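Sanity check

After download, print the first record. It should look like this:
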Amino acid sequence: MSHSDASPPVPEPGRIAHRDTGDDAGWSRWLPGLRTLRGYKIAWLRHDLVAGLVLTTMLVPVGIAYAVASGVPGIYGLYATIVPLLAYALFGPSRILVLGPDSSLAAVILAVVLPLSGGDPRRAIALASMMAIVSGIVCILAGIARLGFITELLSKPIRYGYMNGIALTVLISQLPKFFGFSIESDGPLRNLWAIATAVMEGKTNWTAFMVGAGTLAVILLLKGNKRIPGILIAVAGATIAVGMLDLAERAGVSVLGSLPQGLPAFDIPWITRADIVPVLIGGCAVALVSFADTSVLSRVYAARTRTYVDPNQEMVGLGVANLAAGLFQGFAISSSSSRTPVAEAAGAKTQLTGVIGALAVALLLLVAPDLLKDLPTSALAAVVIASAIGLIEVTDLRRIYRIQRWEFWLSIVCTIGVAVLGAIEGIGLAIVIAVIEFLWDGWRPYSAVLGRAKGIKGYHDIKRYPDARLIPGVVLFRWDSPLFFANAELFHDRVLDAVAASPTPVRWLVIAAEPVTSVDVTSADMLAELDETLHAAGIKLCVAEMKDPVKDKLKRFGLFARLGEAAFFPTIGAAVDSYLEVHPVDWDKDL
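Expected structure tokens:
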């Protein structure tokens, strides 16, 4: 079999795939699965079938484990696996991305479900399903509005921070099940104290703990091997041991029990009026976290296969999958960084892998619902704990600490925020910090007075080149940021400070505006005031290297006409030459 027969089409070396055109530019571009089906090759079927069956061995235990971690019965984890995989196969642009319940969302869902459900499983799944619907609608609308770039507003250190915080929250939430007891949940730090107290008081079920610890050890030992299903081996071993030794009866080990037979049904979740606000907030938080994870993973696999994945369509695909999950007794889902590599390693070629996996899970519920009745909850906790450990980022944070410590500490603040305030509040804190970080860079940007350094062409920052020569009577001032309302006054003050610091009387002030990518009304009015101030002091205000789109804004604001076309120069050198023609001074530009 040739490579072209066995693999999805990829562009020639050195190129990547671009957007589809023609018919796909219309409504059909929202259904990438149909495009894949039209070009499907029979040679791929064997690979997708095998990969789907291998994937199923992970979908079942992981789906159940993340459901329990999210505060809903385990069966709903399988419901949240079946329908979203089918929906994403039609609407998702990535060929092999696997969606389903995920540990990164467990803490967010649990934060809403636990305090509102009062321990009622039916109410818990209604809340979780409505969060999935909210998340789905948000993602679909954002994708249609082409807002797929929004997750890029969260810097890498901030993403690390909130994901590390979520990982710690998830890990702490699973420790009681891991030790074989239960506690009242009041938040991560209080839970940690309650867990320590329970252990000290001898409430640990050591049999359940040994089962969980053994499961965790096997998962971690086999984690690096893509071809050996470590989770399946660990969970199957724990289930067989508990069943054969009758540990549920003899040692009080908590088990999953029989699953309801049958498939998920269409069901609109109903919540109370008091639930609306927390569910809306939680659903939006889920949308942000799930798309941040999905977009990153999607880009990784798109780069590997050298195919183009539209981030807006990715958001729509994720949204439809979440919407389907919420309407078919499931809860919010995301892409999986553990199940997708399994599908890839097993030889997955297209979304048919996920479809086969979903059908296999559905078949399990129809013909063998009692297969996992002896699955111990401590083993499920071990699955989630292993996943939470995998979420924790340490290595790259060390690099960030070495090269930019303030961003490292931003990450730590986000981690502490999630751990102390809770998952949803912590994500909100991360977003606020991201906005502040963005505004700070523009609010207090770098600026420089430029001079001529010996032996180097052009004009450069005199702080970097202390021996640089200044042109008598001219201040060359560079502003490394867009000009907008938040930094307008600072720009005004720094310009006047530069004029005051000039060693010679100033005749011209030239703004090196190449880094200025935008000007708003507030900053334009400030420039008019600055021009008045400088004119009163006998100083001409000039601008060099301003981009045409920014210049067009100045024309609309009336500032271009005020300064006059002669005040605008294509380069700093042209501005200096013009100054020297008007004001002959002792200056050799070639030195």
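If your output differs, re-run the checksum step. Summary of this record's structure: The two ends are 68 Å apart (CA to CA).
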